[in-house]
Amino acid sequence: MSGLGLESWRVRSVPGVAELYAAERLDDPTRRLEFIDALDPGVPRAEKWVIMVSTQYGCCVGCAMCDAAERRFRGNVSAADILEQVRRVLAAHPELDPRTVKKLKLHFARMGEPTFNAGVLEALETLARGGALPGLLPSVSTVAPDCPTSAEFLQRLRAVKDRWFGGGRFQLQFSVHTTDPAARRALIPIRSWSLERMGEFARAWRRPDDRLVTLNAVSAPGLPFDADVLAAAFDPAHCLVKLTPVHPTRRAARNALVDDWNEPPAAVRARALALERKGFKVIINAPWPEETAGGVSCGQVASSAEVAVSAG
Ligand code: SF4
Known about the structure:
The protein has eleven helices and ten strands. The chain is an alpha/beta fold. Helix 3 links the parallel strand 6 and strand 7.
């Protein structure tokens, strides 16, 4: 139990890949979140450590392939409780001094759309000011909601990045997924930025020594994707593309979106080639079989029945 109002517990382990945690607010157990302690298989945590945190209890977006929306949306996670997720993971490894970890990737990519929560900015600034994690590399993934709150968040995020996380120590990711606006709206059922607006923002976001902005694209069956359309909106000088499968979450299965692979199928390889011809760097994010089997996708931990059993 923490003094900050979250009670957390380890739900399950995926050996060599991840430790999966859930937590509930002590004053309101309906507010449940999940967070992950992950590593690249075969790479020691001292070299690269990945912590994924939730920014909302549930998610108010409700993407068609994500189980975060399986739980009722219960609001934003406070900055203190975002930091508590980090503290809980670090505390699980007393043998490691976090100050010596070369790359500590803090990924705001579990439950919740981070741009709806100014607590994310507060948590980032608190960590940066504290200076206790020199290897810190934050990563924010967003569907780019089309609303003033998210637009202001992203402007403020850019200032935080420029002030504290220069030299390629920050990653911004847009969940693009498809180049067809209607298909994107069906997949991500809120009003969101057009590809062109995301592309403009990516151009304005990047300083010369910043990382490329990541454009995430899942390979769900039937989801249109046109490298020409992507290249018209995004500049390969500022963006790379990451191609990923769709794991068999409950919602993905219900919506016939599952495309689960560990070796990229021919269609994914062809998409990568088309994008490379347009000048994009492409990462094919092939998960380890243990990841798929372990149910590590967003929302799967907090929404699983196993959590209720573990919570006792
Ligand atoms: S993918 Fe992200 S924005 Fe979409 S429902 Fe899941 S947590 Fe929310």
